[in-house]
Amino acid sequence: MLGVSWACALILPPVMEDLGEALAAFGLTVSTTPDKGRCLLATRDFSPGEVIISQEPYVSVPNNSSTLRCDRCFMSSNLKKCSACQIPWYCGSTCQKLEWKEHKLECQALVGAGKERRNHLTPTIRLMIRLYLKRKLQKEQIIPTTAMDNYSLVEELVDHMSEIEEKQLVLYAQMANLVNMILKLPDVSIKDNAQNFSKLACNAHTICDSELRPIGTGLYPVVSIINHSCAPNSVLMFEGRLAVVRAVDHISKGTEVFISYIETAGSTATRQKTLKEQYLFTCTCPCCMKVGLQDDVQESAILEGYQCLNGSCNGFLIRNTDDKGFICQKCGCIRNKVEIQEIAIELKSLEDMASRTLASGNYQDACSIYKAIEPLQLKLCHSYSIDLMRTRENLLKILMELQDWNGALTYCRLILPLYQRVYPSIHPLLGLQYYTCGKLEWLLGETKSALKSLTKAVDILRITHGTNTTFMKDLLFRLEEARAEAAYRKTSIDAIGSV
Ligand SMILES: [Zn+2]
Ligand SMILES: [Zn+2]
Ligand SMILES: [Zn+2]
Ligand SMILES: [Zn+2]
């Protein structure tokens, strides 16, 4: 999911010229680079927090999850099903009416397809059905076409068909067959259809809520022009299904706009592997260009390597030349490979058990297993290890489920320094972590700490999230509440002091 056109032509087709005019209004332009294909450039300066571009999806669908969502605004309250096809949900008549032009044909097709086929309807199949129907509706001018909302932009997206494995192609063909049976469109071949599934796989974005939980999928052909960097100057967030790209750094005129396609916490080798596997390219961002250099070797050894056996030493370990162990770069102490392997094996079996237990919803048992994993990881890994960070994230999640607020706060605080190390100072996950911390502190009556954490959360999230959403209004309200309470306490203490 989520991606970009790496292999596209270097000459701008007419559709890109129309788009160029629309983008000029935002202070942006589409350019091409020899190695990366299309890219988005700023034609003016942008400050942190400023919206660079926002785009409604060409097509979108909510996820199949236990939390039902409105097909248009993705809200999850007051939902009613389409009475005819029984597939989409709407939060009210406003959203249903706004969606009707696009849903009408889909509804007829779904009713005609019969209950059995409707039951096999996955979000991806629906996305494809909606893609063809929107193309048809725009072609027949039933719904308007704009410079940023037209099928030609979808055609410009790459499909990476030549790099896809046979097994995947067979699956796409099966999915394409189902789409054809439902839509009965005469002009779409199985091959075109399969190609479009591949396009969706490379380009569709996972739509997340303000807390970065996935809620749906959408195709945003203009946002897809933005290239990836492991140290991006912008961030992609969603407000309902609207994609909003905001600057997190100062972006000066003439600079390329970048977002990150992946979770950036990890060594350069790990990030590069993920990008290659999911997006089929080799990243050449400034972080990745440091691969193999002293700083990068050290950082990788800290994030994914081992702890020094000497308890008071926090040095990082590098594989010894004799290949029998790892040597601490600070104190010279050698850690034996066999001893490392023994702990690693024990950890692996515990981790498998923990994730199974967590998936089954048995939070109490999952908590005990993760708590057994933590000291083992502390013994094996560096104290800034990503694995340790993930264990603590799981424990935080579990303790929140178990409503053990004190326990949750302990882990929330343990995670913060790890996040501060792996993420830049303006990053949505860091902001959200401060927010969780602040909420827990408030709940536990630690007003002063809550005020500090919520202030930090607002400082970050007002840049990454803006201030318009209900989520942010809620956070700003909590901050005011904490401020008022802290001021009140201070006056009370002052009053007592002056008696
Ligand atoms: Zn709605
Ligand atoms: Zn319907
Ligand atoms: Zn990179
Ligand atoms: Zn050491």
UniProtKB/TrEMBL annotation:
InterPro entries: H3K4_H4K5_MeTrfase (IPR050869), SET_dom (IPR001214), SET_dom_sf (IPR046341), TPR-like_helical_dom_sf (IPR011990), Znf_MYND (IPR002893)
Keyword Zinc-finger assigned: yes
GO molecular function, one term: zinc ion binding
Superkingdom of the organism of origin: Eukaryota
Swiss-Prot/TrEMBL keywords: Metal-binding, Zinc, Zinc-finger
One Gene Ontology cellular component: nucleus
Pfam families: SET (PF00856), zf-MYND (PF01753)
UniProt keyword Zinc-finger, yes or no: yes
MYND-type domain residues: 70-107
SET domain segment(s): 26-262
PANTHER family, alphabetized: EG:BACR7C10.4 PROTEIN, HISTONE-LYSINE N-METHYLTRANSFERASE SMYD
Protein name: Histone-lysine N-methyltransferase ASHR1
Organism field: Stephania cephalantha
Lineage of source species: Eukaryota, Viridiplantae, Streptophyta, Embryophyta, Tracheophyta
